[in-house]
Amino acid sequence: MEQKTILVVDDDPDITETIRFNLEQEGYQVLTAGDGASALGTVRLSNPDLIVLDVMMPKENGYRVAKIIKEDQEAGRLTKKIPIILLTARNLKDDPEREKMFMGFSHADMVIYKPFKTKDLLKRIHDLLM
Fold first, then answer.
1. Can you say whether residue 114 is alpha, beta or left, with left for phi > 0 and alpha for psi between -120 and 50 degrees?
2. What is the pLDDT of residues 11-60, one digit of tens each?
3. Fold of 5-129
4. CA distance 33 to 51
5. Are 130 and 112 in contact (CB under 8 A)?
């Protein structure tokens, strides 16, 4: 099986490094970016298999980055559909209606609320890549 490439985007270097380390231990190739603008450049150059994307970042927030990626996919500027996992501290688990609206607005395939367990993130990544 070919090695999958995951782009991790977060302006907190500790979070980025923790996720990167754990993904590499699972055999993934990992690219990182510290802001939304860098993330878009990396996506267009490397066409990753999945993106883990923080919401609150400088230069472009995660919502905008996800929207631009989806637009690029629809316009054929990207060669494949790239699943996006959005990381957010805004926890809506207790409000299913708002969570559903949020998912539609976010342009993400999945949302994970901070703080999160690394093993939960790894399982969701694995599930999306299967």
1. beta
2. 999 999 999 999 999 999 999 999 999 999 999 999 999 999 998 888 88
3. Rossmann fold (3.40.50)
4. 11
5. no
